[in-house]
Amino acid sequence: MSTIKNHVQLIGNVGQEPTITNLESGKKVARFSLATNEHYKNGKGEKQTDTNWHTVVAWGKTAEIIEKFVTKGKEVGITGKLKTRSYTTNDGNERYVTEVEATEILLLGSK
């Protein structure tokens, strides 16, 4: 039961080329945006699409897979959890960011 307390599964398209960072420890971090679309009909029966953008972060082996195989526009499925962090801007304002920390990635679509 504890595995579903903070669990995210998304299927979408990569919005930009992933950014890969090599840390001093030798670990890799991958970061990219993912667009998910929901389709529905409005009150007039017209088809509508609602797009949501998610920031995805992956570490270690998952980041290495992203570096090798994931490009802008690629359809992927990810499993992970939500992480919220805060930082202070140069002008002293505190900002909060919620990201999806991916633990698994599934490459979808055609090559």
Assigned CATH class: Mainly Beta
Mean pLDDT: 93
SSE order: EEEEHEE
Judged by helices, strands and strand pairing, the structural class is mainly beta
SS field, number of helical segments: 1
Question: What do you see in this structure?
Answer:
The protein is mainly beta and 111 residues long. It has a single domain (2-107), classed as OB fold (Dihydrolipoamide Acetyltransferase, E2P), CATH 2.40.50.140. 9% of the residues lie in helices and 59% in strands. Strands 1-3-4-6-5 form a five-stranded mixed barrel. A hairpin with a 5-residue loop joins strand 3 and strand 4 (47-59). The longest helix has 10 residues, at 60-69. It is globular. The chain starts with 7 loop residues before the first strand and ends with a strand.
Present the secondary structure layout.
Blueprint: E1 8-14, E2 19-22, E3 28-41, E4 47-59, H1 60-69, E5 75-88, E6 94-107
Parallel strand pairs: 4-6
Antiparallel strand pairs: 1-3, 1-5, 2-3, 3-4, 5-6
Provide a quick synopsis of the model.
With 111 residues, the chain is mostly beta strands.
Fill in the keyword field for this structure.
111 residues; mainly beta; OB fold (Dihydrolipoamide Acetyltransferase, E2P); five-stranded mixed β-barrel; 1 helix; 6 strands
